[in-house]
Automatic annotation (TrEMBL):
Similarity-based family: Belongs to the binding-protein-dependent transport system permease family.
Keyword annotations from UniProtKB, A to Z: Cell membrane, Membrane, Signal, Transmembrane, Transmembrane helix, Transport
Membrane spanning residue stretches: 98-118, 130-153, 173-194, 232-256, 276-302
Subcellular location: Cell membrane
One GO BP annotation of this record: transmembrane transport
Residues spanning the signal sequence: 1-23
Pfam families listed in its UniProt record: BPD_transp_1, BPD_transp_1_N
Membrane topology: Multi-pass membrane protein
Keyword Nuclease in annotation: no
The protein, known as: Peptide/nickel transport system permease protein
Gene Ontology terms: cellular component: plasma membrane
Length: 311
């Protein structure tokens, strides 16, 4: 029942978001027919033909319904810029963005949670160094981090390529390593700080102190009580930041000249290519919704009591 309710909530959010995305595009300045004529003076008959071709004379709700039905069937329409199928455009660019986001998410989980756990369990120099490093990582903007990484590891040392997505799995991993590091740096820093705080709170909690007083081994207390209980707030922040990676990837893709959906969205917005913008916006909303669903399921797996509270 818990999963069913979450799925129904996700469907409701997607439908409401799709309506807002569709409405926002038509509320924006300009119109598809004005873009298609490229500022040229045309006769009313030509404009009428264009509006009829793209069903612009239909009522708004009819246009939305037809668009939604087509999207559910995998048909996002045609790009107004090059008359190419939007689905094909996305299919060519989504692998780069998804692989970039996946690599950045792995870095956030490994380094963000890992360093946070170490800082939370150890005092002294190790804790201070990790805090200082996380502060620097959070303070450096993503675009500036990308420039620094390119300057050091690409231009100076020549270890990684400056631009391009590569071909083949290993070559693509090599090309996307620096972009993934730049993309994950601020989020990993935030996750590390929150993990450290959560670990330290659980170390001083009553049940952890009582377990130690009863003679339970420290390693067992840390594993069963401290780390497990501290992962609830950490799970939330990790899920939020991973979901936000897709939006943040636009800056990194632009800096490293990657052929992802980020650069495609920037070009589509500049050219008022409504179909492309709507398709990418729906993908972003779906990504956020799915990530929130996974966070809820992970919550329930970590603490089964959450099922009753959050249902």
């Amino acid at each position: 029942m818990f999963i069913v309710r979450r799925l129904l909530a996700l469907v409701g959010v997607l439908i409401a978001s799709s309506f807002l995305v569709f409405a926002a595009m038509y509320a924006a300045p300009g119109s598809p027919e004005n873009f298609l004529v490229q500022g040229r003076t045309v006769s009313p008959d030509v404009l009428a033909a264009i509006r009829q071709q793209y069903s612009l004379d239909d009522p708004f709700l009819v246009r939305y319904w037809n668009w939604l039905v087509n999207v559910l069937q995998g048909n996002f329409g045609l790009s107004l810029t090059n008359r190419q199928d939007v689905g094909e455009l996305l299919a060519n660019r989504l692998p780069t963005t998804f692989m970039l986001v996946a690599m950045a998410a792995i870095l956030i989980v490994i380094f963000g949670i890992g360093l946070g756990v170490i800082a939370g369990l150890r005092d002294g120099v190790v804790d201070k160094v990790i805090i200082l490093t996380s502060n620097l990582g959070f303070a450096i903007p993503t675009f500036f981090a990308a420039l620094i990484l390119m300057s050091i590891f690409s231009v100076s040392l020549g270890w990684f390529p400056v631009f391009g997505s590569g071909e083949g799995f290993l070559d693509r991993v090599w090309h996307l390593t620096l972009p993934a590091v730049a993309l994950s740096l601020p989020s990993a820093a935030v996750v590390a700080r929150i993990t450290r705080t959560s670990i330290r709170e659980e170390r001083g909690s009553e049940h952890s102190v009582m377990a130690v007083a009863r003679g339970v081994r420290n390693a067992l207390v840390v594993r069963r009580h401290v780390i497990r209980n501290s992962m609830l707030p950490v799970t939330t922040i990790v899920g939020v930041h991973i979901a936000g990676l897709i939006a943040g990837s636009f800056v990194v893709e632009y800096a490293f000249t990657l052929d992802g959906i980020g650069t495609l969205l920037v070009n589509a917005v500049q050219r008022k290519d409504f179909a492309v913008v709507q398709a990418i916006a729906i993908i972003l909303v779906a990504a956020f919704g799915v990530m929130n669903l996974l966070v809820d399921l992970l919550y329930a797996a970590i603490d089964p009591r959450v099922r009753g509270v959050r249902a």
